[in-house]
Amino acid sequence: MSIPPKFLVRILNRRVGPLFWFLFWLVLNTFPIFVFAWSKPERSIFRFLDKPVELALACAQVILLSCFEYVILVVLLSLVIKFKSKLGLLALKLVTICYAILLASSWWMFLKYKVFLQGQELNLLTYLIDPVSLFTYVSFRDLSLFLSLTLLFVFAVNIFFKEICKVEPRVGFKAIGLILVAQVTLITFQKLYFDRDARFAYVQILANSTTPQAALFGFLFDREAFRDFETVELNLEPVKDFQIKKDLTKKKIFIFVVEALRADQIKPDISPNIFKLSNSGRSYKRAYAQAPDTESSLMTILTGQYPLKHWKRRQEGLLPKLWLYEFFNRLEYKTARLTSFDWKSMQKTFPIEAFDLFSDPAVDGAAAKIEAKLRGQFGIEPATNLSPNTIISNFDSYNFDLLKNWALTNRSEGLFATFYTYSTHFPYVVAPHSKSELLDKDKTRETYYFSRAEKDYYFSRYQHSIRYVDSLIGEFVDFLKSKELLDDSIIIITGDHGEEFYEHGSSLHVGQLHEEITHVPFVIFGANEICDFKSTEELVGHVDLAPTLFSFFNYDSYPGHQGQSLCVNDDSDRFLFASSQGFTREDAVFYQQWKYVRNYRGEGVRLFNLKRDPQESLNLINTDKEMRALLDDKLKSYRNKQLSYYADSNYSQYYPPKF
Question: Can you tell me the distance from the alpha carbon of 384 to that of 246, in angstroms, rounded to the nearest whole number?
């Protein structure tokens, strides 16, 4: 490392002092965030330009977080110097240099691609914890440009360390205390200032936080998010043993949950294979996801229970449920779970010991330790030939090959498999068909956002990714047919949720419960002989899938299900519910042609007649007051019962309420 001239150090120390270096850090760490925010005001803190208090709170949060990181670095450095640890000092220098390089790298990307390394956030310290994630955003040829900035920052860091060595640790600890007090004060003020859960700056506070900080703030805010219900007395059925006998029919059931698959994309030119299956089997035209996020939807599919839960129960696995895997294990079926994304985030509640086959290629590479642990617990199939940086569509292709081999090897057994495909997730990147396409990775760079001007381009890519997954499903069906397995197979296809392309002002999903996010395909092929299905015009949802599968084997009344079997024809109109428990917190109820939505972050209520207005362009909340009153009462009853059930510490001893 080059040492700066002594006179320069002396001038900087005397003329500017520690205050200069603090301000230098603050500008370096926060200014890019505000520049990025200004470039995309509709998705950043500058959307609050007409709300000065909200804007000030969001900006204050960003600055406080940067101050906290700075003081932590100073205290660590002071402790290292005090105890004269040369190795520790060298390590801190290297970390600081790396951080500076990452900041410069992010600036380069912003100038070239108009996107920072982490999309909506710029706390690059997370990359120092998990450097592997850099490959998601940085192409190989950019690396030389990033490294060329090293010499400049080595010079600056030497000056920085010359000055900072004089700081006493106790001064730093006092500063940390003051910043923490300021953080708590800010959070408390937000709770007092904003009406209930209408905290408009909340999303932006999280967007400019590191993952641990976001988890902390999410915990603090989420605790308050469930005040909007009244505890009611419930008449519940106690949990009891549910007897299941061995099944001798040896059916082969395959459930494909396609990421972000909208109902309006099942058509011959986009998804010809799924379209063909829908015409040969049953395709429900009014099917809805019970949540706009993957984890909640998968839980509903696998349990037949609604996803709305009290915050204390979100991560618990004590629910009185009979997982589909457990049900099929008791039938003495072989079970399989294939995925390329969701296992790591769901491992606390997923009963992985239920699988005869489990495959998640994403647990390779960076998660090799997890894979090694799993290998000793159950029959995992590692994707040893795939890099952790492999395009996700290759994971899906790998899993389809695995599923074919598993089905053929166990052709004489009853089989149950669920397959979650991830290729259709934003930014909709599928495996390249040529070397030149692979090298041109800049055009498919991953971000967490696309602008309104880019929507047509990304919608085209979205449809291309659907075609890719559809082709994999078609190849699998052809494989079953060629091996004479199709006649014994039941194939179910749905989307975990939909995807929004600015139909209502936003993009992607995990937002408000609009039709393009909640309306999903629901195709059942190969079960017409064993089930007298409801009309395909009936209102159905993910919550009905588990009860329907139970009915296939003559178990029509498992008390833990909150949905309805599609094999039981009931002429009465039903009420179907959905909940968004993310940044946009709201519930919805579907009834006949009506849809009623209540938002708990201060954005009011919405009422639509979907038969006349499928695009949800006309809010009838002030027009049809009788229907509003009916649906509002049903939605409140659902929320009160559901959250009262999970708020009870003894909830696991009873089956959940019925609706």
Answer: 36
